[in-house]
Amino acid sequence: MNKLTVAFLQSLVVAGVLAAQTPADEEKLKQDLTAVIALHGQPCGEVVAVTVLAESDYAASCKDGNKYHVYLNKEGRVVVEKQA
Amino acid sequence: MNTRHIWAHPSGTIIAAKFVMYAGSAVLLLLLAAGCAQKLDTPASDSQNAARQPPVIQSDDPATQPASTPTEPVPQPVAEPTPSAAAEPVAKPAAPSPQEPVTTAPTPPPVAKPSVPVSPEPVAQPKPSAPSSPAPKPAAPSPSQPQPAAPAAPSAPKPSPAAPTKTQSPATNIPAATSTLDLDALKEEVRSTSAIGLFTKITLKNQVDDLLDDFRDYHKGKSKLTKTDLRRAYDLLLMKVLSLLQDKDPRLASSIVASREVIWGLLEDPKKFATLSA
Which one of A64, B80, B92, B151 has the largest count of C-beta atoms within 10 Å of its C-beta? Predict the structure, then answer.
């Protein structure tokens, strides 16, 4: 029973992860971060890769080679920090 | 024998006198009845004649005046009773019509007959042109008077001025509808649209709040920014929003463009801005 329960839970987690990272959602996230970086006046062109660091905390890699740390601070403001 | 005896008898003379009186009274009654019958028949005959007269006029018109044929066909429609009926009681439908023809019939014949030879006819002929207008008459009964001058012309220009007014009213309604879109409604629509991602919406909200803070400081006199600077920042922010919306939510983008000056008016006026911030 325990083995079956653990296997079921593991399958649920995997399914949840796959569902959360669908290509459509990832594409929407890239477009969103691209717009945010552009709204902050930072050069990017287009976000080509995104790494989720935490909730509302992302590391974005741009097409032109720039990398940004985009996150929501405690005051509820979106911050864009250029990474070296 | 008996008759002779009766006439010979004094009482027979009385009977004969009574017979003569009865016969005479009967003859008088018959004559009176005949006279009344003639009097009663005359109006009916007149009405019938009146009804028959138009065709007679038609036949006479082409015969007498070939050139005036175009003018007289207009009265021919025999609608003369109808125009007169329409002119007198506008709202009387078919029920009174049978009665009206009797009353109106006498009037048209004199008008038609003298009108044929006399020039005033053209004046009376426009009335027949009304038969075509009786249908539109419910819409504009007043034009019946100007008909003599120019029946169709006045009616044509009238609708044209009315049409522009109608077109103007919707045009005025559109700005009124767009003017109702205020800043709060705009915020709600931007929040509910799916054309912008969550982080982008938060970023836009942050920038809107920054701009509102700048306006607040400006109205309090604490800001070094001028109205021109605020207008530039406002236009730039709107351009950002529009650039994000114009492809995926053009309706919202157009509504924002339409309410651009209205929102600026709210931000620019200190009193209106105070109500907004409150």
Answer: B80
